[in-house]
Amino acid sequence: MTRAAPALRRRARSFAFETVPAHWFGGDPWRTRFFDAFSSLLPIGERLFIDSMRRTAAELGDPQLDALVAAFSYQEGVHGREHRRYNDRLRAQGYDLDGWDRSQKATVGRIGKLADPRIPLAITVAFEHVTASMGQAILAHDLLADVDPEMKAFWEWHSAEEIEHKGAAFEVYTRAGGGPDLRRVVMAWCLFILGIRMGRRFAHMLRRDRALLDRAAWRHGARFLLGEKGLLRLMAADFRAFFARDFHPWARDTYGLVASWEAASPPRAPTAPIGN
Ligand SMILES: [Fe+2]
Ligand SMILES: [Fe+2]
C-alpha cells in the first residue's frame, strides 16, 4: 500500500425523503430508476458486508482491526438505515420490496453459511470497490448537479463515506489470507449478479413509468453512463486497476474528495438509533 487511509468518522446523518418527488433525478425516470434499483439492493448487501467483516475480526482478535471494523460497521449501519427509509418510498409507490428482499436474503443467507470466510469477504471487497469507485466519480465530477437537493445530499454523503472506508474490507480480507485470484474471480461474479438483479428491478420500474421503450430516455441514459463524463466511463480505470495483482484501494488517493464534501456539507441530526 502507498499510504494509510484517514480515520473513519461517525456521522449520524438522516434525510427527509418524505418531500422528495418520484422522479427526483432532474425529472428523468431513467436516471432516477437507475439509482432506485441500486438502492433497493443496498440494505441487505451492506448487512452482509458488516457480518463478513465482524466474523473475521472476531476470529483474529486484533484490537486495531476490531476498531476499524467497528467504525466501518457504524458507517454501513447508518447507510442501511437510511436506505431502508429511502426504499420505503419505493414500497409506497407500489413496488414489491418484500418479494425482492426475500430473494436477495436467500442468496445472502447461502453466502453467510460458507465455511471459508474469505469468500464473503471477497464479495465485500468487490462491492466496496464498486461503491467507492461510484462515489469518486460522483463527487469528483459533480454528477448529481440537477438532482433534488435532499437526494443530492443523501447520495453525496453515502459517496463520501464509501471513499473514506474504501480500504477497510480489503484490509480484513488480506488479514484473513485472501489473495488476488479469489478477489478477481469473485469480482467478475459480483458484477454479473449485480447486473442481473439491478437490471431486472430497473427494467420493471421503467416499465411502470412507461419509459422502458422510450428512445429519448435511453439516449439520455446512455449519455449518463457512457458519455464524456459518463458514470461507467469514469469508473473504468478503477476496474482495470482492481484486476491488477497488486491492487490496493489506498493506492489511489481520493480522500481530498471527502474533505471538500465535508467542508460543504452541514451535519444533520439522527432520527432513530442504529440497529446493528
Ligand atoms: Fe454504504
Ligand atoms: Fe461501504
Textual characterization of the structure:
With 276 residues, the chain is mainly α. It has one domain (22-264). It has ten helices and no strands. The model has no long low-confidence stretch (mean pLDDT 93). The chain binds fe (ii) ion (2 copies). One fe (ii) ion binds next to helix 4.
Backbone structural class: mainly alpha
Low-pLDDT segments: none
If helices are DSSP runs of H or I spanning 4 or more residues, what is the number of helices?
Answer: 10
Number of strands: 0
> What spatial form do the alpha-carbon principal axes imply?
globular
**Assembly status:** single chain
Order of helices and strands: HHHHHHHHHH
The domain tally reads: 1
Instruction: Name the ligand types.
Output: fe (ii) ion
Mean pLDDT: 93
Give a quick precis of the structure:
It contains 10 helices and no strands.
List keywords for this structure.
276 residues; mainly alpha; 10 helices; globular; binds fe (ii) ion
SSE inventory with pairings:
Elements: H1 29-60, H2 63-92, H3 97-112, H4 118-141, H5 149-164, H6 168-175, H7 180-208, H8 215-226, H9 231-242, H10 255-264
Helix pairs in contact: 1-2, 1-3, 1-4, 1-6, 1-7, 4-5, 4-6, 4-7, 4-9, 5-10
The protein binds fe (ii) ion (FE2) (2 copies).
